[in-house]
Amino acid sequence: MLASTRDIIGIAEEEGIAVGSFNVYNLEGVVAVIRSSEQEKLPVILQIAPVSLESVGSALVALTLAMAEDSTVPTSVHLDHCPQQDQIDRVVSMGLRSVMADGSHLSYEENIDFTFNVVNKMRSFGGFVEGELGRLTGTEDGLTIPEYESLLTDPDQAADYCDKTDIDALAVCVGNIHGKYIQEPKLDFDRLSTIRDSVSVPLVLHGASGLPEWMISRAIDLGVRKFNVNTEVRTAFLESVSSGVGDKTLDLARLMEISIDSMSQVVTSKIRQFSGR
Ligand code: 13P
After folding, report:
1. What's the domain range around 34?
2. Given the CA of residue 178, which atom of ligand 1 is nearest to it?
3. Whether residue 80 lies in the annotated active site
4. How many domains does the chain have?
């Protein structure tokens, strides 16, 4: 059933667990995430990157919303990392009610203005807005933010930002990165703990691919209720599809089923970790 991100995160909050939010780029990705969440009977979030709006456009939004509606578990559809109001307006006109207003490239004051405006618009129909404070490094969808631009979330600023924007959830930068961790991940749990004590909204951790299980559990204990996962699922898709490249007689439906299976294995393992199973 199509659910609101607010309700899904509310379930996670009540149960002291976190929910997985998985980037999807195609039908197979959507099927894989829903299959795992139904098997595990756990709510889930499907998230779409703005880059997909430019490539496949509204069809992916419509498909994802329709499949979320048919799911047997609470499932929401979210627009990930969106720096532009017109793209937010576009997905909202298609029925999507959950967005990440990404003003992390802006100055602090500009980020507040941008996020506040998004919240104001989304509030008129009960929409959900995730904001970000700090600057996450790494690579996603062809965009690389170099390490020298990284900025950890300042706990005092986080309190002020949440107050002034009225966001529903805060994405934090505490050493997490997008893409593959080149060295052992180092999360600043003291900072995470101080942020948790300074704000009242649920916390979101991007870059959950490659984090060891103990870090996931510790982050959940410190208030993370939504983990964003892309790289590990994307890698599973690419590896399974590339294993079939070169075989000109290949049955495409079979290859897609294989790719769904391998993505679903990753998703299942993640949502089990996020729910403490
Ligand atoms: P990873 O690609 O590192 O899993 O990060 C995904 C993400 O944070 C999407 O917003």
Report:
1. 5-275
2. 3
3. yes
4. 1
